[in-house]
Amino acid sequence: MNSSGHRVISCKAAVVWKSGEELKLEEIEVDPPNSTEVRIKMIYASLCGTDILCCNGFPKPLFPRIPGHEGVGVIESVGEKVKNLKEGDIVIPHFLGECGECPNCKSKKSNLCHKYPLNFSGLLLDGTSRMSIKGQRIYHHVSCSTLSEYLVLDQNYVIKVDPRIPIEHVAFLCCAFTTGFGATFKDVNIEKGSTVAVLGLGGVGLGVVEGAKQKEAAKIIGIDIHEMKSEKAKKFGVTDFINIKISEKSISELVKEATGGLGVDYFFECTNVPDLMINEAIQSTRMEIKLDELLTHEVSLNDINKAFEYLKEPNCVKVGQPGHIASRIHAGFGAAPKGYNVDSLPYCKHQCVSDSTASTRDM
């Protein structure tokens, strides 16, 4: 550790004092790193929509706080127990840690570490903050707070990067773009020649587009309400652009028109309103098995005996009881639109019952 690593550093940071207020540039103090921590001098930071939510009190109204969770910097000092990192290393401070030992870290399907998780407490994992202003504690944003000239993080939340990569590009590797890009490789792993639709062409959506292009998708349909996004999206690899704001048709209708009535193999929902869009996304995909025709009768829980009578009739296939989405009814089919697990489709769970017996749900 160098000499500055033993002392508190004064620096500038963007601080939000109350929910919804503008950020103020303040002089703050940043503590030296503990034994397993590093202190990073930020070089470049980028903004994400989550930072706006942070300033409005998401996920907890903890103030004063310093937003920012995307950025790149250089290690200024290290704790005595830090391994594989040294002063001068170019690094990304990240909000997802990695111990390398827990089941999730060893899994090829997840990197949500059990020991170093996503932290919304406003503090570091030891329950303290490394930043203050005139003796008053300042809360971190998901451990990072990249809108400060200096920050402190545990070594397990730090990613070393190749210094040959342009600094301003490295900052984009922290959150939005890689969320979308990784979805095409890790979560879905789309096949060459597939058809893909992407709803929402912001940072996450363009990451999906780039990933789909590298996976050699045959058709990539970009969907947004802003015509201005068309040109940039096509530079990333969008083959067809749909502006849903200028059409009275539903998203699923427009997507099927663009695919000759078939629908797409994969639909990526990249907006901030997934609850409103998920059914449109499902209806836009190619249906491998039609389940709608299985449901021939619906009755309320009060008429449960009628349901059993229906079940005895030759024209009855399945009996369902409509109600809340959360239920004990599970589809008896493993097939669903490509890219979806049937358990993640409320519509299928809502309409289908397993085996050949009528099922009901609690109201």
- Structural class, by secondary structure, is alpha/beta
* CATH homologous superfamily classification of the largest domain: Medium-chain alcohol dehydrogenases, catalytic domain
Strand fraction equals 15-25%
Poorly predicted ranges: 323-363
How do the SSEs run, as a string of H and E?
Answer: EEEHEEHEEEEHHEHEHEHEHEHEH
Family: Belongs to the zinc-containing alcohol dehydrogenase family. Class-IV subfamily.
Cofactor: Zn(2+)
GO cellular component, one term: cytosol
Keywords: Metal-binding, NAD, Oxidoreductase, Zinc
Summarize this structure briefly.
The chain has helices at residues 49-55, 103-106, 167-170, 176-187, 203-214, 229-236, 251-258, 274-283, 304-311, 346-351; strands at 9-15, 24-30, 37-46, 70-78, 90-93, 131-133, 136-137, 150-154, 158-160, 195-199, 219-224, 240-243, 266-269, 295-298, 318-320.
Note the main attributes of this structure.
alpha/beta, 363 residues, 21% strand, elongated, Quinone Oxidoreductase, Chain A, domain 1, Rossmann fold
